Amino acid sequence: MNLQNDNWANLDGGHRTPYDASIPLKKLRSTNDPKIITNIFRDLWDNLHHQGDVGHASYFSVPTLVDICIPKTSLDWNFIGLCLVIEHCRFSSNNPILPKQFEQEYFDSLSKFEQYLLTHFKKIKDKTSLRLTLSLFATLNEQRELGKAINQLDEDTLEQFLTHY
């Protein structure tokens, strides 16, 4: 959905209250300042996802996040992780269903993001970005449980896991 669309103000975020994600998404699109980007992502994480809950604002943000990330040629874990967590939460019966009329745009954006990450895979140096990318690949290729497992294998969990094998 276009960021100028007034409907953004009526969409619920992860707290089940209206959250106009177009405001921070516009700011994210227009800046390259790392401090501003960090603050914007803090706001997006806090409002688009809450304890496994997402809303329509979350779903509608995914294509925009992808469309912002790719031209910036960013491999920032926040873009990957936020799209990933929203996609994982989409399957929870507690969350709203993705609107039928929006499915094509949503899935096309995830496919475009997957292709972008595949193309830039060798450039991913950040451990978190790499883990989240692998999780996203698994999730988008009908291996959702594997994707969730990879997502959970942060540095501490991976170390504990490897001591058992």
Give keywords.
165 residues, mainly alpha, 8 helices, 0% strand, globular
Structure, explained:
The chain is mainly alpha-helical and 165 residues long. It has one domain (6-124). The protein contains eight helices and no strands. It has helices at residues 22-30, 34-48, 56-69, 77-89, 103-119, 127-140, 144-152, 155-163. Helix 4 packs parallel to helix 6 and helix 6 (127-140) runs antiparallel to helix 7. It is globular, with a radius of gyration of 16 Å. It starts with 21 loop residues before the first helix and ends with a helix. The relative contact order is 0.11.
Layout of secondary structure:
Layout: H1 22-30, H2 34-48, H3 56-69, H4 77-89, H5 103-119, H6 127-140, H7 144-152, H8 155-163
Estimate the global geometry from the Cα principal axes: globular
Secondary-structure element pattern, one letter each: HHHHHHHH
Helix-and-strand structural type: mainly alpha
Number of helices: 8
Describe what is shown at a glance:
The chain is mostly helical and 165 residues long. It is 61% helix and 0% strand.
